[in-house]
Amino acid sequence: MTLAMTNERSVAQAADVLTIKDLKAYYINDLFGVRREVRAVDDISLTVRRNEIYGIAGESSSGKTSLIKTIAGAIRPPMRVVGGEVRFDFGGKHIDVYAEPGKMKAARWQNLSYIMQGSMSVLNPVRRIKHAFNNFAFRHMGLDRTAFRARVESHLQRLGLDPNVLEAFPHQLSGGMRQRVTIALATVCEPEFIIADEPTTALDVLVQQDVLGLIKEVQERLGSSVVFVTHDMSVHAAITDRLAIMYAGRLAEEGPTQAMFDTPQHPYTAHLIASLPRIGDTATRKSLAGKPPSLANPPTGCRFHPRCPIAIDRCSREVPDMLPSAIGGRVACFRAGEVSVK
Amino acid sequence: MLKVLRDLLRYNREFLFGTLLIGIIIALVIASFFSPYDELTTYAVIPDMPPGGEYWLGTNSRGQDMFWQLAASMRNTLMFGLVVAIISRVIAIVVGLVSGYVGGKTDQIIMAFNDTLGALPNIPILLLLVFVMRDQMTWGVLALTAAMLGWTHDSRLIRSVALSLRTREFTRHAAFSGMRTGQVLFREHLPYVMPIVFFTTMNNLIWAIGLEVTLSILGFSDINRPTIGGMIYWANAHSAMVAGIWWWIAVPMLAVVILFLGLFLLAMSVNEYIDPRSRLARMGA
Amino acid sequence: MTMLLELDHVTKRYPVGGLFSRQSITAVSDVSFALDAGRPEIFAIVGESGSGKSTMAKMVLGNEVPDGGRLVFDGVDIATIRGRDAREAFMAKVQPVFQNPFEAFNPLTPVDAYLFATAHRFCGANDQASKEGLTDRALQRVGLSLAEIKGRFSHELSGGQLQRVAVARALIPAPKLIVADEPVSMVDASLRMSIVNLFRALRDELKVSIIYITHDLATAYYISDRVIIMRSGEVVESGDARAVLDNPRNAYSIALKNAVLPPDPKAAAAAIRDRRILNRADAGAA
Prior knowledge:
Structural class of chain C: alpha/beta
Number of strands of chain C: 10
Order of helices and strands of chain C: EEEHEEHEHHHHHEHEHEEHHH
Shape of chain A: globular
Strand order of the largest sheet of chain A: 6-7-8-3-9-10-12-11
Radius of gyration of chain C: 21 Å
Radius of gyration of chain A: 21 Å
Structural class of chain A: alpha/beta
Distance between the termini of chain C: 56 Å
CATH architecture of the domain at 2-240 in chain A: 3-Layer(aba) Sandwich
CATH topology of the domain at 2-240 in chain A: Rossmann fold
CATH architecture of the domain at 40-65 and 74-93 and 175-247 in chain C: 3-Layer(aba) Sandwich
Largest sheet of chain C: 6 strands, mixed
Oligomer: heterotrimer
Helix content of chain A: 25-40%
Largest interface: A-C, 48 and 48 residues
CATH superfamily of the domain at 40-65 and 74-93 and 175-247 in chain C: P-loop containing nucleotide triphosphate hydrolases
Helix content of chain C: 40-55%
Number of helices of chain C: 12
Strand content of chain A: 15-25%
Order of helices and strands of chain A: HEEEHEEHEHHHHEHEHEEHHHEE
CATH class of the domain at 40-65 and 74-93 and 175-247 in chain C: Alpha Beta
CATH topology of the domain at 40-65 and 74-93 and 175-247 in chain C: Rossmann fold
Number of strands of chain A: 12
């Protein structure tokens, strides 16, 4: 028994909490004979380590939302996983999301939770905040009512929130306060894995930093892994340890955040960073030509090549593989590192 | 248009069944124009013959061939229903869209009128009308009156959609593009209420036919003009069930069931097709 | 010096509560500024949600009437514009660009319908050829062409393209003023700067004045000439955009500037770390 326990713990120390391999998830629509296949997630492999904030950046229709839905096992028709696998390792408890859907259901909230863009999708507008805690977290904690209440209150206090918010209705709180409550809600079970989907996008700039600071603080205290999705590169700069850039359903580049901002290897990354305006700098920023490709009918070869300033013939014919990059990450480009930010 | 029909027939089972059922009804209506008997004539054939080889649906106690009676009745009943549905649809769309788009005081006044009209009991009003009009009462007047009573609920539904469309940014954009109210309503907003229009047309058609049947069974319509309700009226007047002439009752009832079921299936499938979300999905949004 | 637009102590209140409630919230309170007709500029109105900046846009566009003060456009008090002809004459001179291009175009209407309607109503183009000519010329200005968008629906274009179509449409009547309410907040990062740069070009080449309403200080700094910073309906600071944003004086403006995350991991992470210490201090105090 003891031996088995030790074994489990040592497995639990494995570095990666999430492993995605060759994942393909398509929207397949068949309406009145018009068949459309949208390759929202097209052959993506990545791993998320324990105790890190892993950022996923991408523009609209880059597939980032589809990717996290697929990770969470929350896809429904017309979207389908066509190939590949998503595996979690929660302290020795292995879950293959698409082979064992039942296990995944049990892990929700306890091992894995979400922080979403709109707090109102989690908080019922006509029920007090405590109702949301009872509803989502109570079952997973295995505590009696009094102990659960005490636990929730101490958790709120640690996050700098007054426990009295439990008696408030959502509309009595400001947007920033509501988002902090949803963060408390998502972390009260001390999950090992948190998916944060644009948690600061709908917030005013003044509270954005508070919310980011809170997420960072909770993550450090719990030692959890966070997958942080946003289109806003400044937010990635502020909070993520590693960063993946998605373009048209594929990964363009992945690497340590600081290194990617300093020396981006993919021309798309370089452009995203260079086009950020900053106060105190009025130098003309350029935009990329063209438009993001349609996922229903993506370009051949590298999907970025029609808009790429340094594309060569080969880019339109061959699909570049994700290969190790010079800055300790991976990049899918034949001319990696040839465009600089400056 | 042809392509739309082909797609619907091929990919939508409800549409296929609906088309088959309504096809039977339409065939009957067309057949009514080639009837060997005048629809008003009685004792043209041997009375009380059960359905069989010579008289497919039998004959009734008034000496009429049930098949040709049914054909003529179906034509008249359907005509009544369509006239009511079309007139009341036009009113409902115009009132609903304008009221929702203009909003404010105008909206309040229109809706107050709308709700008052909607609260009036239909059958008593029609009965009153029948008593007042007496011999001048034609099916046309009846249809017009029913149409006037049949739009209020649907215009409210349409208004609720129009209210939300009014606050959409594309409505403001259209106004600043110099599109005038009529253009905004009928080019920009109408497609969003079409699913409601189609669905309520079906309901309205069924309601109108039901109304006609009810009034006819009670004898409050021109009983000599063959209609589905009129057939049942005469069957009752001759105590058809007691006399064992079951087909006199069964034939019109079965026809009504086929008609209603066919309309329902068609409405469902067409609705799915014209729904903006489904339309956008097909367009590739 | 003639004024293109002059706001004179403009106030707007919205009633709150029931039918008999006398309470109201002040969305815009005593705002005054003027745009010079001879010197086209990009005038930024910066604020968070609830600052009254969108109400300002609605008032300048004539969609809302102020409760106090006057808005005078081209010598005419906007509140006195009545009737269809006067309204259309006004719209020919002041045109909007909306926030979300996917909302601003009806998904079931081809996008060119808006351009043709504008050419027809405001430029008197009655036949298809002249409508297409005017439309194409405006689209060329924003780096597109009619051939690219003719018969297209909004979902077939990117957010950046659509927003450029929206700008092109606003340009067709040759307006003197464009009111752009958060025009880039819904546009993808890789395309955002093309829209922002476009506004610059319109000011410099077409001499159009632009009221640029935004919550984003970085783009406001990048393109605007003058700025006002609003909070709860009041202007807390105003002046030359560079001067105000480089050295804000008002406490709120300073907080707003500090809240902008720098696009650099070290500095941004430090900003958040500071905030966490503040949070802890708050919690300790409570």
